[in-house]
Every structure is written in C-alpha cells, then in structure tokens.
Amino acid sequence: MKLGARILKTGVAIVFAFYLAEWLHLPSPIFAGIAAIFAIQPSIYRSYKTIIEQIQGNVIGAVSAVVFASIFGVEPVVAGFAVIVTLLIMMKLKLTSSVSLALVTVIVIMEGQKIEAFDEFLLFAVIRFTTVMIGVLAAFIVNLVFLPPKYETRLFASTKYLQDDITRWIRLAVRQASEHTSTKQSVRTLRGHQKKLDQIYTLYKEERTYTKKALFAKKRKLVIYRQMLITTNKSLETLNRLFIHENELANMPERFHIMIQERLDFLSTYHEQLFLKYTGKLKSHHTTWIGQDEFLQRNEIMDIFADYVVEQHEREGDEEFSSYHLLHILSRILDYEENLEHLDTLITAYQAYHSSELLTERDEDNIL
Quick one: signal sequence residues (predicted)? Predict the structure, then answer.
C-alpha cells in the first residue's frame, strides 16, 4: 500500500479544520473535519471548482433544513423529507458532485434540540453551516499550499516507465522468449496503467496557467502529451497483436520473422530516443533517429509482403502460412511507426519555440 499525497493531504486537512474551528470557538469542530474529507480534491483547479459548488450545495442544504425545521419541527421524518427535497434541488441544478456534503449540512442542522425560539434555531443553523464551510475552506487551503501536484512531471515519468515495460515485453514476444501466461497477465496490467495515464492527462489538462505565454506553451505541450499517449497505446496494440498471433509468428518464414524483429528493435530504440529528445538529453545534431538510413521504407515492406502473397498462391501443396495474420502484425507495426514520426515532428516544432520549457532530470525525479 502506497502512502500518496492525497492521503497525507486528507489527514492534514482534517487536523487543520479542527484547529481552525477551535480557534474560531465554533462548537462541534468534528463537523469541520467531516467536511474537509469531502472537499479534498486531486488538483488545485478541481479544488477551486469544488469549493464553489460546495458553497452552493451547503446553502441549499442549510436553507432546506431551516425551512423544514421551522414549519414542521425537528423530527427524524422531517429530516428525511428535507434530505429528499435537497436532493431534488441539487439534481435539478446539476450540483451532483456536492450532494454528499449538502446532505451532511441538512442532518447537522436538523439534529439540534427542539425549537423553542426561531432566532435561537437560526443562530444554531448559521453556526453549524459556518463550521461545515470552515472544513471546506481548510481543505482548499491545504490543496493550495501543501504538496501541490505536478501532473506534467507525473505524466511524463509515468508514460516513460510504461513504455519501458511495453518495450521489454515487445522484445521478448518477437523473439518468442516470453511465457504465454506471463505475457497475457502483463498485457492486462499494462492496459490498466494506460487508463491511469489518461486520468493523469485529464488532471494535467485541467491545470490553469496565468500568462498568455504560459498558456501558449501549455497548449503545445498538451498536443505532445496526447500524441505520447497515442503512440504508447499503439505500441501496446503491437504487443497485444504479437501475443495473439504468437503461434503464427513461430511458424512464420524466417525472412519475415527477422524483418519484423529488426524493425521492432529499431522502433523501440526510436521511441526511447524521443523521450531523451523531449527532455533535451539527445544531441542536437541527431535530426534523424539512429539507424534510420539502413531501414526499409514502408512501401518496400508492402512490396515484399505482396510478392510473398503471390508466391504462396503459386505454390500448391506447400504448407501455407496465413498472410492474413502477417498483415495484422505489419499493420500494427507500421501504424506504431507513423505515430512515432508524428511525435518526433511535434517535439521538434516545440523545441524550436519553447526550449526553456523542457522538463529537467530533477523534475522527473520529483514525482508525487
């Protein structure tokens, strides 16, 4: 079990909410701690959106509680009806993300003693509402100043680590060196990691910039990272295709097997070099990736494949190898290659205008 930043933030927010409520001499500071739990978010932008929605939701919950308690009294059945009405209002206003805390506000206010004077109950409701909002405010402050997330660094490092794993499995699979069950389990695990990358990308995309220059650089980076994720997904598709057709790959004519193995080795090296290029660690004179000059062009590969299909049809009685499966593997490899080239173009264009914005090795090491 990993102790992440969000777990630490939740604990700190609860403690901060307790002390803040006690400093303001508010009764029942436990409600501030409960509110802080609901208000913790994974990013500063989401925390800002949450505090706005929580204010709206808590106001609706507090008003509903006061109205129902004033008309029907403080009874469990009345509290249930107040909760239902609050839910309907929140859903109508599309404030579903703050429903939980709004309902907590309703219950917190309506769990008070019997109403003897409306003014006293109204003061009690205001104090309880303020206590809940103190918890929300404490969570927002903690999100803002305590371990602020660096989603760009996480996104790049996680993408690189995932690609390293995929590359290792591709090199094993194309050489028929991986065990079937292990490869199957690894492909499933890698797909799960790919989905997590998409979530980190979304969080990074939500981060806000405050200058026009930074906004322009951020938009270019978003394009690059989106292409990085697409390219990583293409490499994972290639690995999956090698796994599905591992028997056909084993029975493939040797010249095709060698051609696929060499091409995947070159592409894996190319992909590794692109990560180095993005961080400025690749020498500037490497305008083309190493080994490209001695590489078969895509049209040459398709010509070889077409000649092989014709040759197979002319040979009757020979043991046939399914050209259909070979086409599946080749199509994934060529698609992977095209996306690598597009990623290379995007990185080159970005470096021409924003060389000072590149990730440094120190940034890569500071992962939350």
Answer: none
The radius of gyration of the chain from alpha carbons, rounded to an integer in Å, stands at: 29
pLDDT reading at 367 higher than 50? no
What is the C-alpha to C-alpha distance for residues 313 and 138, in angstroms, rounded to an integer?
A: 74
Percent of the chain that is helix, strand, coil (3-state, to 5)? 80, 0, 20
CA–CA distance, 359 with 279 (Å, rounded to integer) = 5
Q: How far is CA 88 from CA 74, 76, 268, in A?
A: 21, 19, 54
Q: Is residue 140 within 8 Å of 39, Cβ to Cβ? A: yes
Residue 50 in contact with residue 98, Cβ under 8 Å?
Answer: yes
Q: How confident is the model at residue 359 (pLDDT cuts 50, 70, 90)?
A: low
Tokens of 183: 């490869």
Q: What is the largest CA-CA distance in the chain?
A: 100
162 and 193 in contact (C-beta within 8 Å)? yes
Measure the CA–CA gap between 109 and 125, rounded to whole angstroms: 5
Label residues 5-36 b or e (16+ Cβ within 10 Å = b): eeeebbebbbebbbebbeeeebeebebbbbbb
Q: What is the per-residue burial (b if ≥16 Cβ within 10 Å, else e) of 103-121? A: bbbbbbbbebeeeeeeeeb
- Angle (CA) 94 98 99, round 5°: 80
Q: What is the pLDDT of residues 239-264, one digit of tens each?
A: 998 888 888 777 777 777 788 888 88
What is the pTM assigned to this prediction?
0.72
| Residues in CB range of 70: below 8 A, 6 or more apart | 115, 118, 121
User: Identity (one letter) of the amino acid at 244?
Assistant: I
Integer Cα distance of 336 and 221 in angstroms: 21
Tally Cβ neighbours within 10 Å of residue 57. 28
